[in-house]
Amino acid sequence: MRDSARYAWWLLIFLFSLLILGNIALFWKLFRAPETQELSASNVRMGVEFQARYALALEQFGLGQATTRMALDAVFKSLDEAFAPYEATLYRAMLEGAFGVGDPQKTLQTLPDLPSESLTPTQRRWQAMRWQEAFSRPLKPEQVPPLLSALPDAPSALTSKLLEMALYRRAGDEAKVNALRESLGRAAGWAVITLGAVFGTVGCAGIGGVLIILFYLTRLPKLPARPAPNESPFVYDPLLWALAIFLLVMLNASALDYVLRDFSVDASNAIYLLAVLLPLMYLASLQRERDALGQIRWFEGAWWKQFGAGLAGYAAYVPFLGALLLLTLLLAPALPAEQTNPLGERAAGSRTTLQWLWIFTQAAVLAPIIEEFVFRGVLFKVLWQRTGRVWLSAFVSGYLFAVIHPQFLGGIFPITVLGAILALVYAHTRSLLPCILIHALHNGLITLMLWSAMG
Length: 455
Prior knowledge:
Layout: H1 5-32, H2 38-60, H3 65-82, H4 85-99, H5 104-107, H6 121-134, H7 144-150, H8 157-170, H9 174-219, H10 240-251, H11 253-261, H12 268-285, H13 303-331, H14 342-348, H15 353-387, H16 390-403, H17 408-429, H18 433-454
Helix pairs in contact: 1-10, 2-3, 2-9, 3-4, 4-8, 8-9, 9-13, 9-18, 10-12, 10-15, 12-15, 13-17, 13-18, 14-18, 15-16, 15-17, 15-18, 16-17, 17-18
């Protein structure tokens, strides 16, 4: 096994080189390509969805029609930035019909002549005729369900509900309209409360994090030269196969999924679980070794101390996160629009509670467990044992941790710092539980924030 460790080194060097070169090529392509508004528009759309939910929540909280109308006006102003004229006009008509403001029929009069994001002129005129008919012809409540199934797809799950409200309002079924408004308003209210709780939690953590950073810098606890000072610098090298297995599965996930889809199988979830289980099974097999590999303890210390270290570590990260996000906002005008966020992309395509639960499980449970084992428990430990330099190992492992998250320049710096802080927490506690907790808090709060805006 020790003889094969050098192959793991070369394989990882090759895989990380591919990732780094791929990122550099992507950065260069995006900087050289003509500027597009794809990502910026998607971010504005998220804002539009949240503003519409916010208007529903204000109505649910009983804060008055004037306050709700102000929130709706903000939505109307944002529509033209988020959508092409055709889609923006359609969205406006749905909002007007659902909230009983404006004149949807008049709004839709110009729909056939407006440019669309994806529809050809023929499709646009045909669908516009169907939308105009739906908002103009006399309706009875029993005609609404078949009409909804016959109309083209609405832009999102929220707009589907708004359309349903608008049509039942036109049909004169106020009881159904009120039931839909109550359901949407209750969900929107919880979304607003959740978002407020997320920002409140992060804000309190940031204040505490500043104090923790100052305390840490003034005391600067000394760390040993190596995690196993009495062992060879190469003793932990065989652990690298766990990271190699993880990367090989994840890098080939798209290809495997594409092949399996030819057999009508959506294997993306199974592949992700495979990437989680195989490295953990390999690491568990090493516990049978008689030397230092078999004596590794992944979790050490009292449970309350590990949880306390996790909370303190997350709080220490928040000030860095805030500063780096501010820097990203300042640099945003010079950056390409097509930055990516895999979590945001998956969230944007999720419309059911089950889909959101799976996203939360992936982001806040599975990803923290496996990534902490392979990056802090393996990569950082091996680098630390090899070099004897904890800070260097922390930042190198943190950067390589960021490389596997394709979030362009807006995410690579915060994730590198997150990886370095996770490594330092592991170095001080010798336990992965605080690192898993920090990682889970970070991903979980981001997922809750996305759900509040789009769920």
